Structure formats: structure tokens, C-alpha cells
Amino acid sequence: MPVFQATTSAPVNIACIKYWGKRDNTLILPTNSSLSITLSQDHLRSTTTARADPIFSETKLWLNGKEEDIKSGGRLERCLAQLKKMRKERIEDKNPNTPKISEWNLHVASYNNFPTAAGLASSASGFAALTSSIAALYGLNTFTPSEPAVASPSELSLVARLGSGSACRSLFGGFVAWEVGSSLTGEDSLAIQVAPQEHWPTMHALICVVNDAKKGTSSTSGMQRTVETSALLQHRIKDVVPARMKAIEKAIKDKDFDSFARITMADSNQFHAVALDTAPPIFYMNDVSRSIIALVEELNRVSLAKTGHLVAAYTFDAGPNAVIYTEEENVKQIIEIVVRYFPQSDTNPFPDPFKLFAGKQPKAAPLPEGFNEGVAKVWEVGSVKGLIHTRIGDGPRMRGEDEALLGRDGMPK
Ligand code: DP6
């Protein structure tokens, strides 16, 4: 009997217009549209292998090698039910000779190539990889451009959304919008591609992994509290985000970095303002995060005075890590400024994937002329415990048998 198995990988995405708030907690329907950039899977990705077999006595899931409980009626179950329904209705019911693999139990193994300790949200890439691997297994979409898809990435984004809201945006590469939608049942709350990665290939990202001692409030419970208590959120939903979505889409279409950067920074700041406006207040950024803001603002001030243009945009999710979006030509200078204020430990060398530093570790270079050195203090080693340099990337990819996470026996390798 043939083996019914597929392996795919899916990317991380970082929002420029933030999703924060649900109007339906079960269907994961948002209170506002959002927009993100998909980051390259060459550096950050979740890989998932899914297999269906009539001999499996139950459906099982392993995350980074550890078996996880599948909560009955939980998010994962809802994603699986939706994919099984699509397989049954679109393939099995139409072709009576096709094996009814939607009736079989599944073994699913998933692996993130970045440490959970890095504090990067893994639920987006994780649920996108889960959705894409099962879609591939079920013959719904192989993520191979030459093969027609039974279910489009937007349709699959509806499934990933049931796992974690931000996951729906990881079904596409490039610049991706998640439309708020208006239906009570959620079928119009899906992701669409605003522009592919090739449209603006020079868009790079530098992630500053900030040391974080405390365990923060999860996105799910934090946003629920914000919806219940913040008056500012209502203004954001009604008056701010709709205009910003239009403006940032235009900035992306025009490759207008200045507008893109202004909107991205303003939206990150407003997201953290609504977190602060929550009762009790939620603080995701810390003093290190605020120093990074000060450095980027100062660099932009100097650049604006000299060239009339901005060079970088910071954005922060539900934690203290900074993501700095910038065009390729500016990354080296930004790294040199970051390492000047946040000296790096020798034990954690910068991998330099784009070979900016010719085999050496980045060093603090002279600051640009006119840069006010005093906008931040020089922090102790380890305050920013690592730097990840990456760029805009593509959507889910099919992976070969050699990358499968399940062995011949259907158990994790
Ligand atoms: C701050 O998608 O993790 O990263 O839908 O409850 O799983 P759930 O929340 P999640 O929230 C992400 C919030 C954010 C902003 C964003 O990615 O848009």
C-alpha cells in the first residue's frame, strides 16, 4: 500500500499593522484588518510532516520531538476537522475510487528551526506548516506552482486562522493582508497577498532578540483583556486601522519606504498603547526595547536631515524583541549601531548570512555625523542576546522525503 505522507515548511511573519483583538474567540475573527511581511524560510521556518494511515489508533502530534496533548474541541481539532471536510467534499465524494484517507487518523510532527527561547512567536509558522502539510497530504494544494490547487492559499488561510490568527498570513510570501471580514461565520476573514516578495526584494529585517526574564502575558489572553477594557482600542478599530491599511498598501505598491516606515512605527506604538490602556495594563516592551526605538528614531532624524529619507522602521509584538525593517543597503550600518549600544557576547557569534562583515564579527563603527550619542546608554553584554538578519521571503514550500520528520514506522525520527 502506498504511504500517504507529506512534508512542507512555512514561514514566520511579522506584522506592520497589528492584529490585536477578536470579535469571535472560537472562530478567531479579528476586530481589525492587519498586514505583515513574510520572512525568509532560509533562516526561520517551521517544518511539518503529516501522515494518514488506517493502522494509527489515534491522531497524535509531536512538537520539536515532544508529544503534545490534543485538546478535544481545541484549536488543532478545529483545523483538522476543516481539512478533513475539504478532502471529503472536494476529492473523495467526487471520485469514488480515491482512498478515503480523511477517515484515517493522522501522525503529525513539527519542528521549528529557531529556539522557542528566542521569544519569536512560533504559532504563526507552526499552524501554517500544519495546515500546508495536511493540505498537501490530502491533495488539496501541493504548493507547486505548476500543479493546480483544489484549495487556494486564501482558502487554506481560513483553516490556519482557526489555529492562531496571525498564522493565516503565513500562507503567503511577500506582503500579506488579513482582511477583517464581516461574516459571522468567518469565511471572508482571510489572507490575501498584497505584493509578492519579488516586488520589493531589498526589504530586509533585523531581529534583535532581547533578554527577557519574566514570562509575559500571552497574545490570546492579552488581547481578550484589551477588547474588554480598552476605550482606545475602539478608536483604533474604527478610525485608525482602516485608513492605515489603505495607506500602507499604497506605500508597498509604490515602494515608498518613508511612508511604509512611518506607518509601521506608528502602528507598533499604538498597539503598545492599547496594551497599556488595558486594565490591568500590559507591558510588552522593556527599557532595552525603548532604547532600540530611541536609536532608530535618532538614525532616521539624522538621515532625514541629510537625505530627506528614513532608513529604518521598528516594530514590536507581544514581547520585548525588536524587528527592524530596512532596505538591504542600510543593514550593515544598523547592525554596527546596535552592537555599539548592545555589545554582543563572544559565545554567541553573529552568523552573518548575507556576508556583510567578511568573516569577522560586527564591530561598532563611528556614528553617522550629527547622531546624538546620548539618546541611549551603552548596555551590558547580553541585553540584546542575539541578532537575526533575514529578508522578505516566500510562502509554504513542499519539502523532500529527506526532510521528513516521521520515519518509515510513522513515528518521529
Ligand atoms: C502582537 O496570532 O498569536 O503578534 O490568534 O490568539 O493565536 P491568537 O493570537 P496571535 O496574536 C498575534 C499578535 C501580534 C500581532 C500580529 O501578529 O498581528
From TrEMBL:
<keyword id="KW-0753">Steroid metabolism</keyword>
<dbReference type="InterPro" id="IPR020568">
    <property type="entry name" value="Ribosomal_Su5_D2-typ_SF"/>
</dbReference>
<dbReference type="Pfam" id="PF22700">
    <property type="entry name" value="MVD-like_N"/>
</dbReference>
<keyword id="KW-0752">Steroid biosynthesis</keyword>
<dbReference type="InterPro" id="IPR036554">
    <property type="entry name" value="GHMP_kinase_C_sf"/>
</dbReference>
<keyword id="KW-0443">Lipid metabolism</keyword>
<keyword id="KW-1207">Sterol metabolism</keyword>
<dbReference type="Pfam" id="PF18376">
    <property type="entry name" value="MDD_C"/>
</dbReference>
<keyword id="KW-0444">Lipid biosynthesis</keyword>
<dbReference type="InterPro" id="IPR029765">
    <property type="entry name" value="Mev_diP_decarb"/>
</dbReference>
<feature type="domain" description="Diphosphomevalonate decarboxylase-like N-terminal">
    <location>
        <begin position="10"/>
        <end position="191"/>
    </location>
</feature>
<dbReference type="InterPro" id="IPR041431">
    <property type="entry name" value="Mvd1_C"/>
</dbReference>
<comment type="similarity">
    <text>Belongs to the diphosphomevalonate decarboxylase family.</text>
</comment>
<keyword id="KW-0456">Lyase</keyword>
<dbReference type="InterPro" id="IPR005935">
    <property type="entry name" value="Mev_decarb"/>
</dbReference>
<protein>
    <recommendedName>
        <fullName>Diphosphomevalonate decarboxylase</fullName>
        <ecNumber>4.1.1.33</ecNumber>
    </recommendedName>
</protein>
<keyword id="KW-0756">Sterol biosynthesis</keyword>
<dbReference type="InterPro" id="IPR053859">
    <property type="entry name" value="MVD-like_N"/>
</dbReference>
<keyword id="KW-0067">ATP-binding</keyword>
<dbReference type="GO" id="GO:0004163">
    <property type="term" value="F:diphosphomevalonate decarboxylase activity"/>
</dbReference>
<comment type="pathway">
    <text>Isoprenoid biosynthesis; isopentenyl diphosphate biosynthesis via mevalonate pathway; isopentenyl diphosphate from (R)-mevalonate: step 3/3.</text>
</comment>
<dbReference type="GO" id="GO:0005524">
    <property type="term" value="F:ATP binding"/>
</dbReference>
<keyword id="KW-0547">Nucleotide-binding</keyword>
<feature type="domain" description="Mvd1 C-terminal">
    <location>
        <begin position="205"/>
        <end position="398"/>
    </location>
</feature>
<dbReference type="GO" id="GO:0005829">
    <property type="term" value="C:cytosol"/>
</dbReference>
<dbReference type="GO" id="GO:0019287">
    <property type="term" value="P:isopentenyl diphosphate biosynthetic process, mevalonate pathway"/>
</dbReference>
<dbReference type="InterPro" id="IPR014721">
    <property type="entry name" value="Ribsml_uS5_D2-typ_fold_subgr"/>
</dbReference>
<dbReference type="GO" id="GO:0016126">
    <property type="term" value="P:sterol biosynthetic process"/>
</dbReference>
